[in-house]
Amino acid sequence: MHAAIDTRRVQAVEARFKRPLVDVLVDLYNDRGFEGMTKELGVGRSTAWYWLLRCGIRIERVALRPGERVVIAGPDPK
User: Fold this and answer.
1) Among 74, 16, 13, which Cα is nearest to 52's?
2) pLDDT tens digits for 18-61?
3) CA distance 10 to 33
4) Are the CB atoms for 55 and 2 separated by under 8 Å?
5) Backbone angles phi, psi at 64, to 5 degrees
6) Would you put residue 55 in left (φ > 0), alpha (ψ -120 to 50) or beta?
7) Which of 2, 24, 40, 44 has minimal CB crowding within 10 Å?
């Protein structure tokens, strides 16, 4: 859990999903989009954006031509 947002609501989300908030946010956003994520979490738009910001989650959008695909890679090795 991110120390800056250690709240009861965050703790409840982590307990419900049995995972850290950052993982829950990324997966829900990718699977359901922003609105679906807020509904599933039961929080407002402002809270969801705040959590994304405080967890350091970047939202990237990309346009693809037919036949192109996006590859998600892990962190760069140091």
Assistant:
1) 13
2) 999 999 999 999 999 999 999 999 999 999 999 999 999 999 88
3) 19
4) yes
5) -120, 140
6) alpha
7) 44
